[in-house]
Structure formats: structure tokens, C-alpha cells
Amino acid sequence: SNEGGVHVLLPLIEKFREKHPRILVDVRRVPARQVGVEVAQSTLDFGIVTFDPGDKRLQAVTLGPDELVLLVYPSHSFAGRDTVSMAEFAHETVIAHSDPSPARDRVLRQAEVRHAPINIQMALPSLEGIKRAVEKKMGVALLPRRCAVAEIERKQLVAVKIPEVRYPRQLRLLYRKGELSHAAQAFLDVARK
Predict the structure, then answer these.
(1) 6-19 and 182-192 helices cross at what angle (nearest 10)?
(2) Contacts of residue 155, Cβ cutoff 8 Å, sequence gap at least 6
(3) Is the pLDDT of residue 167 over 80?
């Protein structure tokens, strides 16, 4: 999983461990673009992605939808709104992830097309760091909603939609076609439920 996928894995791991507490679950950080390759080559049993890797050796279980949202602190002027425009977002101090990603590239291209360059003033290496910086009112961030569900529920952060860059997508659990180990099959059964 990449860092963002861990948030969707935790509930699955929790359910799996209720039934199989003695099986080691080892989640490795892998860039999203490499996840399908690692699973297809049997280096990993599973991988979490938000795109179809296009490899015929793989199958996937859809785990649910996700989308990019603008995360702001509760007293921010956008916090009471359902949506903001790309132009409004572009004027804010933006905290970005320092690792490149396809989603980041799409957002930057969209901003360029709309002549609304994004004001990235800080880049941090972790999603947790980005969320904490937003909570400290250091700026706003565009992240997948799944990465901040707990903070949104606790009202530490507010999610606002930017219609031009929502990019709804499905979270997928990838696995190899063919026979799986008993532990991997048990995990897949939990994911399917």
C-alpha cells in the first residue's frame, strides 16, 4: 500500500485479526504505481490502488469510492461551505505532499488550464504531517477523503469539495489470479464481505 491506502486497510485488518489473531499482517509501503507489479510477481499477496493497473494476472475487489477534497481547519472561511472553486483554492496557502503522484499531476494540470496556479508554500513527506499542519492553520490541503475520515468525524478538519478536481475513484484490493495461501484467502474473504 502507499501511505494513503493504509487508512482503508486498517478496518479490514481489524476484522481479519478478530478471526485470525495469530497471523502476521505486514503492510509494506510501496508507491501506487508499483503495487500491481509487486502483486503480479508474487512479492505481495495484496495491494490497494485507486486505478486499474491493466494486468491480466490480477483481479480486484472493489472496496468503495473515494475522492479528493480540500481539507481546512474548522475556523477557516471555507469551512461552512459545501464547495469552492479552483480559483478560490488557488489563492490559499497550500500544503502539498512532497512525493509526486498522478493525482497531484492532474490537479496541477487542471490549475494550469484554468489559469489558477496553486500557491504551494509547503511540501511535507507524510499525510499525517499535512493534516497536522492544516489543523495548526498553516494552510489548506487537497487529499483523498479516506485519509482524513477520523479527523473529519472529530471535527478537527472540514472537507470541502472543489468540483473541478474531485476525481472520484474506486478503491481496489488487488490480488493474483490463481490459488492463494490459506491466510491470503482468509483475508480476501474478509475483504469481500
Answers:
(1) 110
(2) 74
(3) no
Amino acid at position 189, single letter = D
Quote the CA–CA distance of 57 and 39 in Å, as a whole number.
9
How many Å apart are CA 114 and CA 158, to the nearest integer? 25
Calpha distance 60→101 (Å, rounded)? 21
Q: Please say whether the beta carbons of 73 and 158 come within 8 A.
A: yes
* Structure confidence by residue, pLDDT tens digits, 26-45: 999 888 889 999 999 999 99
Q: Is the pTM of this model over 0.85?
A: no
- Cβ neighbours, 10 Å, residue 130: 26
Residues 71 and 159: beta-carbon distance below 8 Å? yes
Gap between the Cα atoms of 78 and 31, Å rounded? 32
Number of Cβ atoms within 10 Å of the Cβ of 47: 26
Residue the block writes with cell 484554468: 114
